Amino acid sequence: MSGGVPGHLGGERRLSYHLSIDGARRAVTGARLEESLLTVLRERLDVTSVKDACEQGRCGACSVLLDGRLVTACTVLAADAADARVVTVAGLGPGGPAAAVRAAFVAHGAVQCGFCTPGLVVAVTDLLARRPGADEEEIRETLAGNICRCTGYGRILAAVRAVQAGRGGPPGWA
Description:
The longest helix is centred in the last third of the chain and has 14 residues, at 117-130. The chain is an alpha+beta fold. The chain has 5 helices and 6 strands.
C-alpha cells in the first residue's frame, strides 16, 4: 500500500492516504485498515453516487472503475486503492459514451427506482468502451454482475442495443 501512514486512534491502527476520485486527489485520514473502498467513498468522502446495497460484491450497485478495471467497491480495501484512479458514475462525465448510456436508459425505461442505475451505467459504459460491438452473450455476462429488481433486464438490454446502434444518445452523439 503506497502512501499509507500508520497511526493509532483509540488503540486501533489508523491510516492516512490519498485516493484519486473522478480526477480529484482526495485525502483520507484516520481510516481503519479494514475499511472497504465503498465505505471510504460514501462515509468519509461523501461520494454518494456509489450505492451501498449488499456489501458482498454480488449486486453491482457499487461498481466503479479502479485504474480502468471494473470492480465492486465493497470488495476492495480502500487502503489497497491508495494512489489508484477511481472513476464513479459521476466521473464518467456529462458527455460521450456515458451520456449515451444514460439517455438510452431513460428512453427505454431502464431506470425505475434508480438504485442500481449508477453501477449499471458504469458497467455498460466500460463494456462498450472495450467492446463496442459486444454480442448478446457478452452484454448479458456484463449485466450478470448487476442486480436490478425493477426492470426485468429487457429494458436494460434494449438500452444497450440502442447505444450500440447509435440511437441511444443525445442528438449529435455517435
